[in-house]
Amino acid sequence: MWKTVLRRILIMIPQLIILSILVFFLAKMMPGDPFTGMINPNSDPKTIAHLKQEYGLNDPVWVQYGRWVGNLFHGDLGQSYIQKVPVASLIWDRAVNTFWLSLVTVIITYAIAIPLGITAGRHQDQWQDQSIQIFNYITLATPAFVFYILGLYIFGFVLGWFPVSGSVSDTASEFFGILGSRLYHIILPAILCALITTTATVQYLRTGIVDNKVEDYVRTARSKGVPDKVVFNKHILRNSMLPIAAFLGTTITGLLSGSMIIETVFSYPGMGKLFLDSIGQRDYTTLTALIMIFGILTLLGNLISDIVMSIVDPRIRVQ
Amino acid sequence: MDKQTDVLLDIEHLHTAYRLQGKFYDAADDINLRLKRDEILAIVGESGSGKSTIASSIIGLYDQKNTRVTGDILYNELNLVGLNDKLFNQIRGKRIGMIFQDPLASLNPLMRVGDQVAETLYYHTDMDEKQRHDRVIELFNQVGMPRPEEMYSMYPHELSGGLRQRVVIAIAIACKPEIIIADEPTTALDVTIQAQILDLLKEIQKETHSGIILITHDLGVVAETADQVAVMYAGQIVEKADVKTIFSNPLHPYTRSLLHSMPQTDSNDEELHVIQGTVPSLKNMPRSGDRFAARIPWIPASAHEDNPRIHEVEPNHFVRCTCWQGFHFEDEK
User: Which residue of B has its CA nearest to A311?
Assistant: First the structure.
């Protein structure tokens, strides 16, 4: 078990190095240099040349790369050109916001998808299954931004049940408290987002159950005289949950990457919106930092998935 | 011992029909079989002859919506046909054990093999966890598994095919059932392992005095293990006798063709005999006349009965139809 984890972590090292090289050179290739927008364009070229020398921009590329990586290790992601604050602090606030929104979204997604998937699989081709299939087609076919804007319009503006933007009220009153206000801002986007992301989980679970129901080992279990209910919960369901366990890692790290569309529609200050805004404002330092972070999160997600899979599926474990 | 109690299972006029596109077709047609204690009854036939259908009918594991079972399967005066699931679950695993064909697919990949055996004991005995564990070790010893303590915590994928089948057998015999149904138990195994597993089955039967229904397409397996043999073709039993009679004096053309198709070591013939044609599919099965007639076309129609019945041609030797009387391989060409 620990060997598997160690092996996977070792594999991650070259992946991380390649990722960092890619990100660094992509940033280098972008137009402009770190002084663009930071100093008076009418400055003496000599001063600029002096500054370049001072900040090491005339050093060989690999020295610059080494310095950048070294700074990364110290948590120094650079300075945002636009916001004039350290990128690290900029990202930290957004990451916290995104984490809460995504956590609630994921909980609601599973709370909807797992019962639906089980019902559909158990009552394959009956009316329950067919209704859930229709629901699935709708959630799959509806464009996310249309669905979000519609939800925002109806429940935010027309009915006025939920706030339409932000992550926490400025005047977080005693009535709600800050935590309550946060949750109040999160609940509508989370429900909308969850409704539309259930499709894959429902479908994987349904297919898993339908496939596993006719497996030989299920027949063996029934031939042992195990009651149908136990056969379903202990044998069929556990095997059908495997594909969902495989997604768990990426789902967890997805919590931090956020959703660009939902955050933008609800003007929710999270990582996704920050990413889109940074593109719009050509905020390169923030962008490269974000891409690096998303990349690391993806790798971490795969690692967590592998670990989870090796816990639940003995066939995955490396000897 | 009283003669009557020797009969473990009495199958009478069993019809099992599957629904295909809204219509029911008999996959097992008027089956009459009797399984006695201390006896291995082999059911032989090609794929699609209905032999596995009989097995699933006995143990009550079939798609309830698309299967229609009629007739009687009497076990101790209890009719298993139409028995409700709750009662059936007290019989499955406890009174009737089942061994399946593919030992990898028949085990849950996520459960330790020892736990899969212990699960049977959990539902049919009062044993506590420790006792169940000890019984599993005992069973593993009985089915000839090396290092049983270690094997207990193995997962199916870590075991070889032969060992997996031993686990499946351990599951089937865990509660010392009176009846064991083995559905092609050696088909998925290496030839060397096949012999070991068959020996094991015979050994277990001697120890437990159970009756075994052995379903197979392999006449070699039949010759080696069976006491009684029923030969099936297209859903019907065409010949039924003890194993000696089947091999020394086969009568029905189908039985004779099957035996004739077996490679002989003592003959110099390079070519194997092939039975013309194929087994009809369930939908296209002829419902009147001799179902094997199409595959022995040189036999005149008049030789067959209009509605072939099973005849007892000598004591305990049953043959369907009368066409066997004029059947000779030499006439084929």
Answer: B110
